[in-house]
User: Fold this.
Amino acid sequence: MARIKPQALLQQSKKKKAPRSISIPTIALYSVVTVVMVFFLFATYRHWSQRSVLQIEEGTSNFQVEDDFSDSKKSDVPRYAIFNTSKGLITVELYKEGSPEVVDEFIDACQKGHFKGMLFQRVVKHFVIQGGDSENHAVIEDWTSREKHYNQLEKRLKHEAFMLGTSNVKQEKSGFDIFITTAPIPDLNAKLNVFGRVIKGEDIVQEIEEVDTDEHYRPKSRIGIIDVTLKHNI
Assistant:
């Protein structure tokens, strides 16, 4: 067996330990891959950042649209109602801010023609006139029974004349009835849901108030509402 000389072993060991040189094409390839990866990461980050901004703007826009819709819905509610009665016109301002639910119910009843041909069933002089179901006289009876006590009540408890309201006690058959006060009434909110006031046609209300009635405060002649017109402005 041939022996290898020490010098040959040393040269072979040096050849094995010598580092391999990296070629220029390899360096260029690595550089291109690195640049591509960095560009991809940057593009991805920019895409998701822009998407987040768009989602925030879209959410803000949706909130604004909802608010605008809510405001437009409020502004669409008629502010005035004109009662065309057999005695003349009575214009009422509706309290849509103070009594929104009652005003909505009143408007719905108007649009359904509920008040067309409605009669004033009770007329109590210096108190109130009532339009609606003739069977609903709980409010009238209570007020008239307390008439002698009215001058003893504090003035701050009284409400103004020519207020428009509907009964707190609802009956399915009677539907939406109306009351117009012709004098300050104490404890008005305890009996009625006040949702408006007469701003024109007070003389018509007083003329209705002066009609002849029987002992049950029913007018002897037919007096009623021909129709009701809703308006945003007058």
About this structure: The chain is about 40% helix and 20% strand. Residues 145-158 have pLDDT under 50 and may be disordered.
